[in-house]
Amino acid sequence: MSTVSPPTPAQLFRSATRAFWWLGIAGALTSIVLGVLALVWPGETLFVGAAIFGVWLLVHGVINIMQALTSDREDGAARALTAVVGVLFVVAGVICLRNVVVSLIVIATLIGISWLIGGITGVVNAFAGGYDATGRLVVGLLGAVTILGGLVVLFWPGPSLATIVWLTGIWLLVMGVIQLVLVLRHRPGHLV
């Protein structure tokens, strides 16, 4: 009779690393697909924009929370900030999904605040350590682009609905590509 031994901590770590890597790929591809859809069908996207953005906020909120909970970084402040942003993203996502017909000014404000806070977190995390020079540059650039997008939405409330959809589509596409590059750069071995 053969007994199966429980997995070792190293095996559990490798398994978790693979799962989080695939979760990162899913998050990046979600951003890319939603960005392309918003750019290809801006008229139709107006009616579902809040739902699309709500889904994105939920996915990335969960990713941020999981990253904060499982990070091996010793910088507690960066982990706490990442967790807070994750919770804010989840709350904003629930609001967007629950009240799809809420005024677009409120949704634009949520988008702007979410992007601004997420961008600030990205810049802080870029310089908090744990990245090489290239990773720091890419994470910092992603944060800066996100801050810029948030400021445009917050301080330019008069754009047409189509402009908001286009800005959102471009931002999701750029951010998704940058995230995909980051995730692929840190591919764990033995993904099979």
From TrEMBL:
Residues forming coiled coils: none
Transmembrane segments: 20-40, 46-65, 77-95, 101-125, 137-158, 164-184
Pfam families noted in UniProt: DUF308 (PF03729)
Domain of life: Bacteria
UniProt keyword Ion transport present: no
This protein's UniProt keywords: Membrane, Transmembrane, Transmembrane helix
Key word Transmembrane helix present: yes
InterPro entries in alphabetical order: Acid_resist_chaperone_HdeD, DUF308_memb
PANTHER family: PROTEIN HDED
Name by which UniProt lists this protein: DUF308 domain-containing protein
Organism this protein belongs to: Paractinoplanes ovalisporus
